[in-house]
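Q:
My hope is that you can spare some time for a protein that puzzles me. I hope you can help me see how the letters and the tokens relate. Thank you; the sequence and its tokens follow:
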Amino acid sequence: MRNFLILLMFFTFNKLISQEIVGMKEVYIENNLVYKSANDELFTGIAQSKRKNGHLVYEEEYKSGIILSSNLYYNGKEKRVSNKTIYNPNKPLVLSKEYKYNLESKIFETTTYNDNGIKILVEQFKNGKLTYSCQYLGKKKHGLELGYGENGEEMTYRCEYINGKKNGTEYCLNEKGIVTKKEYRNGKKIK
């Protein structure tokens, strides 16, 4: 009985850590689900696109035909992600979050989406510190747009947007420490 349990644990663990890796041409999409061409079954694993020289360019991870994430890679000798996209597992092909990486493999920009795949937030980073943040409603700025100095601590810009138009006080702090303020209503400067 003990040996049976050990074998069961081994096969279960092996199934959890091993994923099938196929080429992008070995899968197809139908009704927002991905199937393996060889057996027409929902695909679980990783589909990759490689160059003739073997360089990994792009890959997507699937579970039961639903895309979970994708990675776009830099062209170079090392395997480094340039863009990572996370998808909503409850709504096939709907974006959840995007990450952009620099050549040092550090995040320099993130984009967050709501449950319906509508962009709601863009954030930019420098040396791991938040330097820019802007709320969106789809393609239009909607909410606060904030800018920070390179250290990520001092706010250098602040403005509120409503449906893509500046609304309220725009605050700017330049490199010399001089503050300027302008008033906007519905996109028009009033002061």
